[in-house]
Structure formats: structure tokens, C-alpha cells
Amino acid sequence: MWILFEAAAILIIITVSLLIHEMGHAIAWILQNKKARADIYMGSSSKENKLKLTIGRITFYLTISFSGFCRLSNPEELPPITNKQRLISAAGGPIASLFGFVTLYFISHLISGVLGIIINRVAIISLMVFLTTAIPYTYPSFLRHLGGFQSDGLKILNLLKEIRKHHKVAS
């Protein structure tokens, strides 16, 4: 029985850490445009068999998952998205993961017992999410919902190159 509890706790801890990361992307989008709305999907882009929760301009499609992503739900209603806006959004996830790590790690030392340990584990996984998303690479195909997509670090690197290229042309 204890092993089942531990397995469930691990799955929830990973999901919460990924949710913190995706919220960073969503918050970056909605702060940049007052009309922007963001969707956060845990797991696949399917809305079936997921808990739907809307808070402000962010809609969550929640399930226990090892992956997640965020996207604008209304890009057709917004002015064209600039590379700077894409850069800020791409950086929002890793920044949220790093901030989540620091905050939760500190909090975990103020709370004793099982709750403190669980918060500490969410902090550690948030640090791992930061590291694995900030490194520039393309996700391997065995990662079902992410295979072939760019990590946030690779998006940031490519956007910085693009912004620099346009800056040089404009100069």
C-alpha cells in the first residue's frame, strides 16, 4: 500500500512541477496583451477526460502527466506576435520553474513532516524541469507529446539569433 502512495505522490509532484512551468508561459502571454487568453494542457492536446479549470484568462486542461504545454487560445484576435513577445513567453516557463524551485525549497525548510518533504520534492523537480527545458535541444521522438519540438532553451536561442539578425539589418 505504501508503494502505491509513493507512486501517486511522485506522479502528482511531477505534474505540479510541470504545471508551474506552463503557468510561467501563460502568465508571460497574458501580461503582454490585455486581450490574450492562454490554454495549458497537461499531457496531450486532447480536452477529453481532463479537469477543465478557468482562472482569469488562463484555461487549464488538467490530468496527471509527464508533459505539458501552453498556447494562446485566441491568436486570431491579437495583433501579429513579435519575436520579442515569443522570447518573453519562451523564457516564462524556465523562469517560473527556477522561481518555483527557490520559493518552494525555502518554504520546505519552514514546514516539518511529510508536507515539508513533499514541497521539497516539488522544488527539486522544478529545478530539474528548469534545467531540462533551458538547455537548447530538440525533444527526442520517444517523448510522445513533445517529440520533435524545440526545448524552451532552443526557442530562446533561435529567437535571440533572429532578433540580432533583424537588429543588424535595421542598423
Explain this structure to me?
The protein is an alpha+beta fold and 171 residues long. The chain has 4 helices and 4 strands. It has helices at residues 2-32, 83-108, 113-134, 152-170; strands at 38-42, 51-55, 58-62, 68-72. The protein has a 4-stranded mixed sheet, with helices on one face. A hairpin with a 2-residue loop joins strand 2 (51-55) and strand 3 (58-62). Helix 1 runs antiparallel to helix 2. The longest helix has 31 residues, at 2-32. It is globular. The termini are far apart. The model has no long low-confidence stretch (mean pLDDT 94).
Beta strand %:
5-15%
* Low confidence ranges: none
Count of individual helical segments? 4
Rounded mean pLDDT is: 94
- How is the biggest beta sheet arranged? 4 strands, mixed
Kindly state the percentage of residues in helix.
Answer: 55-70%
Keywords summarizing the entry:
single chain; 171 residues; alpha+beta; four-stranded mixed sheet; 4 helices; globular
List the helices and strands and how they pair.
Layout: H1 2-32, E1 38-42, E2 51-55, E3 58-62, E4 68-72, H2 83-108, H3 113-134, H4 152-170
Helix pairs in contact: 1-2, 1-3, 2-3, 2-4
